[in-house]
């Protein structure tokens, strides 16, 4: 089993927040080392950072338990969000009318990679 071709992935389905709000936080952590990304999420003032942190911890656990990766070398290779279902509600308005309210859900996907140290001390 080659480690190079395996992508370590964690998906958090049906997160109750809009994709636009989640994408802001994911842009912030993309490309960082996994432990630094977790630290940054801990001090982020966005409520959705808690769900993103859970997803990264899940991906780290997948890498450690399923593929025996060294967790010190992991970094956030890809982090993206997609649309999921939308709850439709309505609010009563004047003169017997109603206006729609959309409550979107999202799907967070985190893919981790491993940076290996070469023998001459450089990272790849």
- How much strand content do the residues show? 35-45%
Strand order within the widest sheet? Answer: 1-3-2
CATH architecture: Alpha-Beta Complex
What is the CATH H-level superfamily?
A: Ribosomal protein L22/L17
Element-by-element helix/strand order: EHHHEE
Cα end-to-end separation: 20 Å
Instruction: Estimate the global geometry from the Cα principal axes.
Output: elongated
C-alpha Rg, in Å?
Answer: 19 Å
What is the name of the CATH topology?
A: Ribosomal Protein L22, Chain A
Q: Name the assembly state.
A: single chain
The main β sheet shows up as: 3 strands, antiparallel
CATH class: Alpha Beta
List low-confidence stretches.
none
Coarse structural class: alpha+beta
Number of helices: 3
Number of individual domains:
1
Tell me what you see in this structure.
The chain has 124 residues and is α+β, with helices and mostly antiparallel strands. It has a single domain, classed as Ribosomal protein L22/L17 (Ribosomal Protein L22, Chain A). The chain contains three helices and three strands, in the order βαααββ. A hairpin with a 5-residue loop joins β2 (74-92) and β3.
Question: Keyphrases for this structure?
Answer:
124 residues, alpha+beta, Ribosomal Protein L22, Chain A, three-stranded antiparallel sheet, 3 strands, 31% helix
Topology:
Elements: E1 8-15, H1 19-29, H2 34-42, H3 49-67, E2 74-92, E3 98-114
Antiparallel strand pairs: 1-3, 2-3
